[in-house]
Amino acid sequence: MSIIEVKNLEFVYGKNTPYEKKALDDINFSINEGEFVGIVGSTGSGKSTLVQHINGLIKLQSGNIEVLDINLSDKKPNLKLLRQGVGMLFQYPEYQLFADTVLQDVMFGPTNFDMDKEEAKESAINAIKMVGLDYEAIKERSPLELSGGQKRRVAMAGVLAYKPQILVLDEPTAGLDPKGKKEMLDLITSLKGNMVKTIIMVSHNMDEISKYTSRVIVLNNSKLIFDTTPADLFYNNELEEIDLLTPHIVRIVKQLNQKGFNLSRNILTEQQLVNELKKTKAGSNE
Amino acid sequence: MEKEIIIKVENVDFAYRTNEGKTDALCDVSLDIKKGEFVVLLGHNGSGKSTLAKLLNGFLTPDSGKITVLGMDTTDESHIYDIRSKVGLVFQNPDNQLVASIIEDDIAFGPENLGVPREEIIRRVAWALDVVNMSSYRKHTPFKLSGGQKQRIAIAGILAMLPEVLVLDESTAMLDPKGRGEVLDTIKKLNKEKGVTVILITHYMDEAIDADKVVVLDKGKILTCGTPKEIFSDVETIFSTQLELPVATKTSYDLRLAGFDIPLVLTDEELVEALCQ
Amino acid sequence: MNRDITFGQYYPADSFIHKLDPRIKLLISIVFIVAIFLCEYYWAFLVCFLFLTIAVIVSKIPVRNIFKSIKAIIIILLVTVIINVLFSGRENPFFKWGFVSISWDGIQFAFFMAMRLIFLVLATSLVTLTTTPMTLTDGLESLISPLKLIKFPVHDVAIIMSIALRFIPTLMEEIDKIIMAQKARGAAFDEGNLLKKIKALIPILVPLFVSTFRIADELALALDARCYNATDARTKMKELKLSWRDFVASLFTLGMLAVVVLLKLGVIL
Question: What ipTM was reported for this prediction?
Fold first, then answer.
């Protein structure tokens, strides 16, 4: 069941000024409920612009978008309903915290979307626990005095608290160290099973994309150039040509295959590679 | 010929003191940096690596112990600007280091502050921009540059002061892969071709592959120190920190456990070669 | 949102005025402002008008851009004119009622007042249209540098101005990001009464303040790392140099001032 439908989407910044720049050129795709989609592209490819259309932050200029049955080409689309349905976490979301206490900040979203006070509070408490924070320890503290990692989780709780059906994450691991990245990605994966049905993750970390998403949309210079599975994308293309890196495992497999190995062109994780090499070795020992 | 030691860190302790109390950041840290070395300081967030960076050029002074830079003690106030102009520090956020609206003005800022004669400043600005490959941007405004470009400008701004040591405090953490590559290529070039001593502080192990020396910091202490090969091979120690081994290294480790007769490697290419033997 | 702003009104063109030294432009505009307040009667205003017209033509700036600045003060202009027409007439008023007293000299006074305001705005506009903010700052710094003798922190002030200019686009982008993030969480900024609208600004202002302090902290470290204040004997890479254009423009301006003064003193006409 398609919950996001994008047709012939185009967008130009600074129309009719000397600074005119085309950010999106004839973008077409649709996303079904339950998918975990990665959106990838080098800086300036248009991915932020695309993503900001999904919850109506950018006014539609040309083309058609329908999200959760709300048509953005209507004269007055119901943006409030749309934004409740599409939870969006921007890059470095910890920079948008403002309230006196963590609980108040997390309740901001639910309150804006007209959830009644008790429901909003309960939902906020639930969200705070879901992102792995100790509710009792943190509820009265000022969000501004927490550590970077904690702040980011509070920001995430603030989005989960209004129970969106689609979660859009813009570079959720930006600036985190390896442990922090892993924890964030595990958290996102746990949400998918559970709370949020559909996830869209914007990233330029190909290792993350290959491990966690089942479908990748690639933008380059305002155009959509690939819409396929991670394995197909990485194994059948030279991503360096569009300023993106191939994940290490894929590079290794490709080079091994060039040297005579016959490894499956579906290997995306280290574990899969080790297993397949073990099988090959066992096979050649017989 | 033994290379001369230009920075000596001796038994340094440092703790941050706030209204809430004391937070230990570094505990009995000792380290020697030799002239021309490419040193990588690895550590998770909170390991004390940024604190060490700020101690190296005198922003912070040790609670106990001593740091000597080119013979000068970092607690000696009379030498503080000598130390800062010789040990350049590039920070994490590419934006918040650039002070001028026009790039060439920003690069001139350091030498201007040092009272360098005008003709010499002009020469240095052109040279620094060329070293970081940004000469065509001299008259541009920093606002429209990518993160990698901005960091290169920041490096150029420090280079214009002709430092002997370049310390990069997580300068690649906020960049996309392309930007990271640009910055790493730039500092390797500075180290290999211009003889600048480089201290790269990061949590990405794959940035340490080409280092002369790798120092691993964990919870304020130096856990281990050695060549990349020595450090990466000590897999058990790395597992105990919060760092992540490069994919090729971890894969070679797992393959060895599965009975493959290959060495522990550092790069993808080395792994492929080892498996083809 | 992509704001490709060249902050300020600067309109790039290749003109005599654009090429003038910023210090000269600043001094000339001060002299011009003095002149317009010395004007008492039509001839003097005509001299100023001609001076301004020549400057505008030479600057190659489209008239449309020049008049935009007048749009900004249209309310003040109307208020000034109306107040003066109604209340400052003294001789032979043809309409009188309480404090209201309309006469020809009042109307004339209102007209002159309006002219002064228009000339003032046009002159200062011309300076900002033909000079980049950075160049203006350099010019200002140079002009106030004699204050160094009384220990006024001239260079610190100049750095503050230049850093502020550098960060304006960055901060505007930051504001955009914060607004978008809060809108995504359902924040509305145009609903409700005035009090509600003001409260709605808190989720924008608090993060903005916090960000600004964070930026300032990081910048302070960067300034230290680049040895700011290492020595009082700072040098400067870019020098402002006067050229023949500056002498010509200055002579022209002084000539205009002389005529206005002579008109005022009654020496001519």
Answer: 0.90
